[in-house]
Design a protein that fits this description.
The structure holds two protein chains of two kinds. In chain A, about 35% of the residues lie in helices and about 20% in strands. By secondary structure, chain A is α/β, with parallel strands linked by helices. Chain B is built from eleven helices and eight strands. Chain B has helices at about 5-30, 45-50, 65-70, 75-85, 115-130, 150-160, 180-185, 210-225, 250-260, 265-275, 280-300, and strands spanning about 60, 105-110, 135-140, 165-170, 175, 180, 200-205, 230-235. In chain B, about 45% of the residues lie in helices and about 10% in strands. In chain B, α1 packs across α11 (about 280-300) and α4 packs across α11. Chain B is globular, with a radius of gyration of 19 Å. Chain B has a six-stranded parallel sheet, sandwiched between helices. Chain B has one domain (about 5-310): Rossmann fold (3-Layer(aba) Sandwich), CATH 3.40.50.970. The chains are: A alpha/beta, B alpha/beta. The interface between A and B is large, with 41 and 42 residues.
Amino acid sequence: MAKITMREAISQALMEEMDRDPAVFIIGEEVGVWGGTYAVTKGFYDKYGPQRVKDTPIAEAAIIGAAIGAAMVGQRPIAELMTINFAFSAMEHIVNQAPKLRYMFGGQFSVPMVIRAVGGGGRQLGATHSQTPDAIFAHFPGLKVVSPGTPEDAKGLLKSAIRSNDPILFIEHATMYQVRGDVPDGEYLIPIGKSKVQREGKDVTIVTYSKGLELSVRAAEELSKEGIEAEIVDLRTLRPLDMEPVLESFKKTNRAVVVEEGWKSYGVGSEISSRIYEEAFDYVDAPIRRVAQKEVPLPYNRTLEQAALPQVHDIIDAVKEVLK
Amino acid sequence: MKKEQQLDLYYQMVLIRRVEERGAELYQAGKIGGFMHLYIGQEAVSTGLIAAREPRDRVITAYRDHGVALNCGISANQVMAELLGKVTGTSKGKGGSMHMASVEKNMWGGHAIVGAHLPIASGLALGDQYAGNDNVTICMFGDGATNIGYFHEALNVAKTWGLRVLWVCENNMYGMGTTVERASAVAEIRQRAEGYNMKSGRVDGMDVMKVYEASKEAIDYVRGNSQSYLLEVMTYRFRGHSMGDPERYRKQEEVKKWQENDPIGIFRKHLIEKKTATAKALDEIEARVEDEVNKAVEFAEASPEPPMEELFKDIYAE
């Protein structure tokens, strides 16, 4: 075991897969000479050269379109979106092309492509650069949406994503690159589409992923001091959604809080709570609570921005609410 | 061009015409659903163009794709079966009129969102460049697609990265019901190439031999120079934009005038005048096509519907 940052974990996954398979290449804005705007691909350009670490113009439809086409003819591109907010400029290709091509042409085409996108708020970037629109992308069959909450998961899931023959949106949280965690030595893979219990507890189930995991762990530690033991289920993959560990935990605790950074309406929490009601209604002891972003475009001002984003105390309050 | 190949081009053009005429009948009879866009009038474009490619050159096009599919060597049986939504169709009945493809024939799809396949075409060419081969990607689209942003993004990276793409704009003078003049800042689509420092050409799309010659030259240039090329092909669709087009945007006299320039009629006259073929020989080709299309309709009608398990198949590879 080594303790490394999320950034190092992602970087290691990319490098290991590029070393393993010459069909893997990186394409995106400032991934090469600059070294990646979040420094994830620092040093890659010198090691692999301009063809395998391909800088592009600021043209998201061209980036994703190019990755789709190259994937269709047998390469394994990793397209990087500097922020997930720029995904909207390539929405057609992310949701209306990549996820449809296999099905619509009777199984003839494969799109083995990963789109790495940096998401999340909390850095005072204003409303257009701070969104957590993960749920939108998880709406589309044919696309897989992965979003890790620990360095270990980030590395293992990204390696699996690169080896997958399906188009995968891999969402990294902008404020988590410095998060440290233990990562196994040597090569390992973590399967896509598997939720995981990250903390065991008996009193309440917290369902979350990505940044929400960090907040939920801190909330659980606080709650523990008051004798409340929360079990945390990390979704890790939003589509395909693995409800088994969620339902198993809920059947034990009978109470749940869903934590996400995106807006509440039509969000991940809506989906998870509905599924619990549909599939484990007999086990419900209290209404499920959702902790999410306030329904506003994120403001620049730090105090206002933090007030809009879900906080540790919001999770603690919600847990106490469901335990009433 | 050798006589046999010229006769084959004639056969292909007549085949497209008859497949679509029968398709229109089946559509009116309610046997074909959704949108269907006929290629009738434009047959010389893809026939001449695709005749100029090597089999390893990739083809990708928009939703007016029946002709392109047939030119690429997809059988009339498969095209007709796809139109009828049958499991024996090119896309197992899950794509329909606008989504014909065959990896085996290097035909990478009819694509239904205007302009969206252009960045993907750049990607096909990028994949080939990455693999180190000199395959050419032939990307066809209508005049309407040149006004959407994808066109710009795709041509810009193609030129910047030295991708081997032959961009073929089929200018049939209307994007749905809007004339080129009402939609485009430049009157000649080829002018747009200048903004990308890209070589371009313009050719009469009603004459299959002229299309073939221009395409051959363009493909050689793209392959030899590792550069993109924009070829504008002037053509006209004799039918509406799609089935059920009231055609309020153009006069019947205009359509009639163009129909006098029927690409099949022009080529037929050419073949007879040059003594490449007798009228009788061409009639025989037409009879052969008639028979082939009858059989394709029979095949499609007799083919089974996709089984219910197809509903959940091929969403993911794994």
